[in-house]
Amino acid sequence: MKFSTYVAKRLAMFIPTFLGTIALTFIFVRLLPGNPARLVLGPDATLAQVQALTRQLGLDKPIYVQLLIFFENFFHGNLGMSIVTYQPVSASVAQYFPNSLEEAIAAMLISLAIGIPLGIAAGMRQNRLADHASRVYALTGISFPNFFVAILLIVAFGMWLRILPVSGQINPFLPLPRHITGMVVIDSLLTGNWPDLYNSLKHIILPAFVLSLSPTAQTVRLLRNGIIENKNKSFISTITANGMSPSIIRNKYLFRVAFIPTLSVLGLLFASILSMAYVVEMVFSWPGLGRYVVNSVLYNDYNAIVGGTIAIILVFLVVNFCVDLLYKYFDPRIRL
Amino acid sequence: MTQPTNPQQASSIPKKSSGAKWIVVIVVVAVIIIAGVVIGITYHSSSNKTPTAPITFTIGVTQGTAHIDPAIATDFTSNAAVNNLYDDLFTPANVSGHIAIVPNLATSYTVSPNGTVYTIDIRSGVLFHDNSTLTAYDVAYSFNRMLTIGQGMSSIWNGVITAGNITATNNTTVVMKLIHPWSSFVSTLDVMYVVNKNLVSAHYASGNYGPNGDYGTAWLAQHDAGSGAYTLGPYDPSTSITFQKFDRYWKGWTSDQISTAIMQTMTEEASVQSSMVSNAIDMTDYTLQPQTYNTLEKTPGIVVQNDSGFNLEMILMNCMKEPTNNTYVRQAISYAFDYATAVSKIVPGSVQAEGPVVNSLPGHNPNVLTYNFNVSKAKALLNESGYSPAKLSSFTLQVVYVNSLQWESLMAGLLQTDLSEIGLNVQIVPEPWDTMVSQTANYTTMPNFFVLSSTASWAAADYYLTRYEMKATGYTAAMFYKNQTLSNMIQEAISSTNVTQANQLYYKIQQDIAYAAPVIWIDNAVHQIAYWNYTHGYQFYGLLGFDIHFYNFHIDKTKTTSAAVTDLALLISESAIVMATIKN
């Protein structure tokens, strides 16, 4: 099968999967208990007021009619209005998504910065102190719930040491940098706004670190196993016998081979960081997409839930699509 | 008997003691040096501040500010935001230790002899944030807009006044025509905020309100059109909202008032606590757990203010369903409930409720019949009920509560335990709030018990009494208590324009309702809030969001404990503990 045919086939599968998941989300959201009109109007609203708002929002129509209306708007680039904030959902998604992306990128960088040296050290010094320490770190990262670690860090760095902010993305008294990417750290760097850069970096450390725990653990374990698997292979013995320095062997040859399995899961790890960020975003009041969706669920803000979920679904599908294409490109056996 | 002393051990003791002394000396010197540095930094930073430096203030709130449109806002943060951006016609104030509703944009008012026409004089010289003048036409427009949209706090006026019945006769006079007289009408005008008619109508989009389009709802969701003490700064519903001082505010300013205030959303309680202790924020909201306030109170410099709120926590009883349709049974249940446990263990800090009206609300009858935990009396009343013990135990009485609220689940559990003592079986049914509300549509679907918390929307006794009228509907009236005589009396009281006469009737009404026991009135929850001690002027009014009125706050950081001094105090106390440990 030609590569272009393969791409076209995957693309053809991508579209119905995307629309199907949107339809399912749309229906499931409407099966949630509770009437959003009641939640918006507050406890003292009369039944007549609730019914009036229900009609106004079109929630009195059958679900399939609502779905058709939604898709009609969706294909015109309209995700509807939030019933809580009265703002277009697409604008809110566009506002919050870069914040989540920024946090996920920071988490990924931290996880690579910690995971790679720790994984190499663990693999090179198998069953020694470095290996045991990396195992403890990996186990902790995998097994401790994010919210628990987040609260511990809030107490440690916010209450005891008082060196890092524990809430939000930037000090609200600072004017935001000029909007370029929507990511505060990047924008403040691009605009040379150093106070914003310093402050936003301080804000991103804790949430990004918590988000990085699980991917770091996976990076460490995969890299360690790759190093152990390859360090006694003949090509390493050959270049060692040729007198090449151990650091060059480790960094240039062994690491490259051992890192391939890790590289193949990095895309999925990134997507999973993005989709699981809502817990960390809630705890650290990070204004990301996950937090937006969670708050929308609390208010049964149907359009906002569907809009936010669409963005997350899209990221997952795009990443999977890209990973599939990369696999196909690098491994010709998949074409068979 | 004394142990023989080991000469080696004995000789080693003075050595250890000498080492410890040195450590003590080092620690003391270190403390002095650090203290010097801290004081130096504090002095340096304070001396750098000019006397006219703008005052900033941050309050950490656990929910976002969803709405800033006065016609839409209902929750705490939204009400607080609106209260700072807009001026209300009347406003709550502390008058001689009691909460009263006093004129604000209104200066005075008269009522027609039949109590249905209110003529209100509007203050002159008030400017909107765009520097245009506020007039009576803006007031009429705002009230009509609120009633037409039919959201936010407008449910207060259902059946009392309709859109179109508020007119301005000139720049300073508004006439409001009520459907029927209502003695508390003026008390409700504290949530009647005035928007800039010209500004809002210039931003209409297409919508559901005929020629008024969307009535400016989309625009007002992101902008302000008020005359309040503060203008809207950067605003994100889920993150933070910034308020900037409006220099031309009609009440004027003093140098110790806040220039820029921020309500910062912090969903995690630990974040609020740590930010408060580290002085990253200046104030918390009222939604934290009691133990968090206890912890905060122990931090030097942090004040926790406790107030009795206008909140009534209760369990409604279905008065049209067996066996709670029997007055003796309801009274027995009221005596069987352990109020002391509820108040001390489930909602610590609260006070036991006295009758159907919140204890601190104007019009509350302090001598009303109050039920106390008395199992023998409860059993005696059950014997008089006409039901045999066997018949009573054959009923399964359902208590329904909001499944996500822990305190309600504990109340339901307590009711189940207490009623088992008098032979009644209670089944606990957690439900989502909306399901609970739908169950209250009629008495056949309404369970025997319904756990409810209710906060007064206006500061008058009738807020809690009108739910006992014959015509009352909705979940607050879900006890389905029907008594024509009582209903007439309530109508007479709320229609009265004579406050003394109305209060006398309210007292009698409360006594009659308490005797009939359609509700287990459990407690009035305490309202707690924490702030740093340099904050002065905080005033709790009982009404949702009104206490976060930044204009009332005066900040004086020079006379009180600063964060640095607190750090120093903590450092010294911790060092003392270290030294004591070493000595021992």
Q: Could you characterize what this model shows?
A:
The complex is a heterodimer of chains A (336) and B (584). Chain A is mostly helical. Chain A has helices at 3-30, 36-41, 47-56, 63-74, 89-124, 129-143, 146-160, 184-190, 194-231, 234-241, 246-276, 278-283, 289-298, 302-330. Chain A starts with a helix and ends in a 6-residue tail after the last helix. The mean pLDDT of chain A is 87. Chain B is built from 17 helices and 19 strands. Chain B has helices at 7-47, 76-85, 136-149, 197-201, 217-220, 269-277, 290-297, 327-336, 339-346, 375-384, 389-394, 406-420, 433-439, 462-465, 484-495, 499-516, 563-583; strands spanning 56-61, 90-95, 98-103, 106-111, 117-122, 166-170, 173-177, 230-236, 240-245, 260-265, 283-284, 302-317, 351-352, 396-402, 425-431, 449-455, 519-532, 535-536, 554-555. A six-stranded mixed beta sheet of chain B has the order 13-17-12-16-14-15. A five-stranded mixed beta sheet of chain B has the order 8-9-10-1-11, with helices on both faces. Chain B has a four-stranded antiparallel beta sheet with strand order 4-5-7-6, covered by helices on one side. The longest helix of chain B has 41 residues, at 7-47. Mean pLDDT of chain B is 86; it is low at 1-17, 35-51, 560-564, 573-578 and 580-584. Chains A and B meet through helix 2, helix 3, helix 7 and helix 13 of A and strand 1, strand 10, helix 6 and helix 13 of B.
